[in-house]
């Protein structure tokens, strides 16, 4: 592609050099630059790409896009000064891949909890209804039935456009994407045209990055602020910040709720460990998904599907056939008759929702064991809150490690213990080794008891001192139960 075509829709402040050359690829990582690449210098959270301009040129970059022109410029290099390089990168990535989001309907889902579940269920529903779809989530990336390997948990804007371009090439009409607050704030969705957006909820999380809850809300809201008038915005008005998301959006505004009147109104009629009977807009159906939080996620899926113009009867029939997303309230009953639940809940609110779901279903003749930890190198403010939720609501709590990363697991547990109130001191254990903690829960539990293993869900590793070791909560729980049954 010619450089002048690649720069379409970028806010150019200055050009030094020619824009007539052919461009082979775009890169914002100087280590990946090759001959004929454009290097975009991004001022990131930890690193400023402007410091690596010379390195990129030495590796073959012929064009540099920057927000500050370097003092020592090379004669044979074209320099493009723009207002914001991260926004420019989004426009350039879209142009390079021939603007795939103008050729399919991309729906983004944002919120603290439920993003992955909702995006994945939308993809599954679309496929069931006979509409081949693409999925971009933190668990996996799919184009129709094909799983696409990703080098990062969340793909960058170049990778997103590449995936969506491949989807367009295969004739796919719909794509569903998990949209994080980090991605919004860092302009990692810049240049994408969304046909619609859904909001799940917002609670205490990621304050290590956003610093204040107000900033966190503003990041989520920015996603809706930038929607076009042709798009739709669907928000959860059971959440007190639900209406905030719609305040300045140009998109068509819609609401959904379980607790109040809304465009898409839901109700939980029955809630059991093997499923729920739900009523959406006065129509009943059964789902194998469990918990009020899943009822809310399904209601968002139902609303988005309706706004995409799909047949309502077919939507409800297919919703009843959808299965749990991996690592989200996954259950099994051990040979000893112990009900075990593995869930990704890693925020105070998500943990409270999962425990509340269990409390609403259980008989109270059994004990509830809850095992939870907090990640290292992440928001420390939520650690005491997590411990408070677990110790105040479980019959027996076990505080343990999650992904300690570079922190000492015992120091993380000390931070958590600060949230334990004196009346709950006798009903919690502290076991840093997560595998040992799972074993302990099974040794203590008896037939009919419930064990909730929270925090890691679908993850198949545990990160300790920067090294990822194989670790799957569900697999370890199943193996432990089998061993104790011998």
TrEMBL record:
The modification N6-carboxylysine is found at residue 220. Keywords: ATP-binding, Cell cycle, Cell division, Cell shape, Cell wall biogenesis/degradation, Cytoplasm, Ligase, Magnesium, Nucleotide-binding, Peptidoglycan synthesis. One of its GO terms (cellular component) is cytoplasm. InterPro entries: Mur-like_cat_sf, Mur_ligase_C, Mur_ligase_C_dom_sf, Mur_ligase_cen, Mur_ligase_N, MurE/MurF_N, UDP-N-AcMur-Glu-dNH2Pim_ligase. Residues 327-457 form the Mur ligase C-terminal domain. Its EC number is 6.3.2.13. Pathway: Cell wall biogenesis; peptidoglycan biosynthesis. Pfam families: Mur_ligase, Mur_ligase_C, Mur_ligase_M. Meso-2,6-diaminopimelate binds at residues 378, 402-405, 455, 459. It is found in: Cytoplasm. ATP binds at residues 111-117. Its cofactor is Mg(2+). Residues 22-97 form the Mur ligase N-terminal catalytic domain. One of its GO terms (molecular function) is ATP binding. Belongs to the MurCDEF family. MurE subfamily. NCBIfam families: murE, PRK00139.1-4. This is UDP-N-acetylmuramoyl-L-alanyl-D-glutamate--2,6-diaminopimelate ligase. It comes from Profundicola chukchiensis. The gene is murE.
């Amino acid at each position: 592609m010619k450089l002048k075509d690649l720069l379409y829709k970028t806010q150019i402040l200055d050009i030094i050099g020619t824009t007539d050359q052919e461009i082979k690829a775009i890169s914002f990582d100087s280590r990946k630059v090759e001959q004929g690449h454009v290097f975009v210098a991004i001022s990131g959270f930890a690193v400023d790409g402007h410091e690596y301009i010379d390195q990129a040129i030495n590796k073959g970059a012929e064009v540099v896009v920057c927000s500050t022109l370097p003092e020592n410029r090379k004669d044979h290099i074209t320099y493009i000064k723009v207002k914001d390089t991260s926004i420019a990168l989004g426009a350039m990535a879209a142009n390079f891949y021939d603007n795939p989001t103008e050729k399919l309907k991309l729906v983004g889902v944002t919120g603290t909890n439920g993003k992955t579940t909702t995006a994945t269920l939308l993809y599954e529903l679309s496929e069931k209804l006979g509409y081949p779809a693409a999925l971009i989530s933190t668990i996996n990336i799919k184009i129709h039935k094909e799983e696409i390997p990703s080098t990062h948990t969340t793909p960058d804007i170049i990778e997103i456009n590449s995936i969506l371009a491949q989807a367009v090439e295969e004739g796919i009409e719909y794509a569903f994407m998990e949209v994080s607050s980090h991605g919004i704030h860092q302009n990692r969705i810049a240049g994408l045209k969304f046909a619609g957006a859904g909001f799940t909820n917002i609670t205490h999380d990621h304050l290590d990055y956003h610093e204040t809850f107000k900033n966190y809300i503003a990041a989520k809201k920015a996603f809706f602020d930038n929607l076009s008038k042709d798009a739709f915005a669907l928000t959860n008005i059971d959440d007190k910040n639900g209406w905030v998301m719609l305040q300045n959006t140009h998109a068509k505004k819609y609401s959904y709720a379980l607790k109040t009147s809304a465009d898409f109104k839901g109700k939980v009629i029955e809630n059991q460990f093997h499923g729920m009977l739900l009523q959406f807009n006065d129509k009943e159906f059964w789902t194998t998904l469990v918990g009020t939080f899943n009822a809310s996620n399904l209601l968002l899926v139902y609303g988005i599907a309706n706004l995409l113009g799909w047949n309502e009867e077919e939507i409800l029939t297919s919703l009843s056939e959808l299965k749990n997303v991996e690592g989200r309230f996954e259950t099994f009953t051990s040979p000893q008759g112990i009900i075990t639940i593995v869930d990704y809940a890693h925020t105070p609110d998500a943990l409270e929702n999962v425990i509340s779901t269990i409390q609403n279903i259980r008989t109270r003749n059994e004990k509830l064991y809850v095992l939870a930890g907090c990640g290292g190198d992440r928001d420390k403010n939520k650690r005491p809150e997590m411990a408070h939720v677990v110790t105040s609501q479980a019959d027996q709590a076990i505080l343990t490690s999650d992904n300690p990363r570079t922190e000492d697991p015992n120091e993380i547990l000390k931070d958590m213990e600060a949230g334990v109130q004196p009346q709950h001191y006798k009903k919690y254990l502290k076991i840093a080794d997560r595998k040992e903690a799972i074993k302990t829960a099974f040794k203590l539990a008896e037939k009919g008891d419930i064990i909730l293993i929270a925090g890691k869900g679908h993850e198949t590793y545990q990160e300790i001192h920067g090294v990822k070791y194989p670790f799957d909560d569900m697999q370890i729980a199943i193996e432990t139960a089998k061993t104790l049954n011998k």
